[in-house]
């Protein structure tokens, strides 16, 4: 229990240091509100994915197909909006695809027994291919969608400045935290990652639990794609591709163990913020955009080394 | 003595290999029996079937005078009927808190499935202090199980059985891989179970441990019961010789 707090303090310290560095380097940017508003509008897309993926990682599973699920979902959302001129139909069709994509992954992993890393590499190609086939490789512009109720609800600027998506992502974070640590479903997830044999012997339906985890990941991928489409008013075939590593980086910076059985939603939350602020921070500092990845690398490695060191200490 | 379990004519095979051949087994209230026998004698299969993890091909099972429908018999059903199984090392989640382990699969929840953590912690504290005898050593229900010793981990699994008022506790090699001091803890837990009038089925390779806590010994060899001996009728040496001679016959 105590260990967990140390994790959370250390991850918070990393965020604080990163931010302090940026503020001292470019106070004219980082002491003003605008950059933070822009963070509030872009970070939720990665964060919501990272929050949804964290329980899967805790259950010792992985999903590499979510960027492709996003592509197809975003396409379905945009295309059905253009065809039916109804955002609700578009919304539900898109989520339905996420549901079935997640179910598909879950069944391959749980019922056929393919390790999830392999299964989702396969389905990642499959779904990306599907997006290409459906769209013929061309982008869709949905500029009028900005005027709809759903756009105002999910990505509008509340009170004239506050990006709605950051409200929804906070709601989602709290929900995931409650389910993971206070609900019996979360209890099952923790034990599946820790000792799946024990979970099974204690009467936990491990198959069902894992399939539900894949389904929620699929549906949240769709939801993130919908948010992205609403924000950008645009869909393009490589939609989602850039998120894969950022999402994993957020989770592991946050301190969730790759070995399963333990993890932190707070850590993922802060991890996603760290990942989210780096890029524009670097550019504001006057460094070349080429430095971004290098600095991601530095911060990720520092964070995981700190976690590993503390983990070993706790085990002694 | 009141009968809690009666298994008649139990058979089980994997493919062409007959693992259990016409097993008949009775267990009484407050009785501890040991299943002895070599590797592959069928001990594990027998308890897996009894605890609902696997199913008999054919058998008649009566628990507390109720005939069990073996077609619907699974882990959950077995637990509802009062079976609790303690597997060596594998029935706890090491990275999880003690209270989560005790209530795994049987959480105290509200109508929405949210766990009453405070209640679970109170009950766990009580079990830790009064059953495991862990008082004021810095261990509380929020500690992770990996802060407990090997014997205490087994005790935790046994404590589940006590809290949920199980009638029959099955212990699969509970003393394997434990240091002597830890073995004594586990044997004491088994004695406590007996004092609480619970019945136990103990599987072990260690005849010494079996002899210390059991009332009756059942020797299995190649899927058949070769001997069913009361402790009062046999000395430790006698038991050892009997076991060796049965195993020699089959060599």
Question: What is the gist of this entry?
Answer:
Chain A is mainly alpha-helical and 316 residues long. Chain A has 14 helices and 4 strands. Chain B has helices at 43-50, 75-80, 98-102, 117-130, 150-163, 180-195, 207-213, 236-249, and strands at residues 3-14, 17-28, 32-36, 58-63, 66-67, 83-87, 168-172, 199-203, 216-221, 224-230.
How would you sum up this structure, described in words?
The complex is a heterodimer of chains A (316) and B (251). Chain A has helices at 2-25, 27-30, 33-58, 66-84, 87-112, 116-135, 149-155, 164-182, 184-194, 196-201, 206-232, 243-254, 265-284, 291-315, and strands at residues 140-141, 157-158, 162-163, 234-235. With 316 residues, chain A is mainly alpha-helical. The mean pLDDT of chain A is 92. By secondary structure, chain B is of the alpha/beta class. Chain B has 8 helices and 10 strands. Chain B is globular.
Q: Please give the order of strands in the largest beta sheet of chain B.
A: 6-7-8-3-9-10
Please trace the helix and strand order of chain A, writing H or E for each element. Answer: HHHHHHEHEEHHHHEHHH
Question: Quick one: which chains have the greatest interface?
Answer: A-B, 22 and 31 residues
Gyration radius of chain A, to the nearest Å? 20 Å
Largest sheet of chain B: 6 strands, mixed
The secondary-structure element order of chain B is: EEEHEEHEHHHEHEHEEH
Number of discrete helical segments of chain A: 14
> What overall form of chain A do the CA principal axes indicate?
globular
What is Rg of chain B?
Answer: 19 Å
Give the strand tally of chain A: 4
- Beta content of chain B comes to 25-35%
Count of DSSP H/I helices of chain B: 8
Helical proportion of chain A, percent range: over 70%
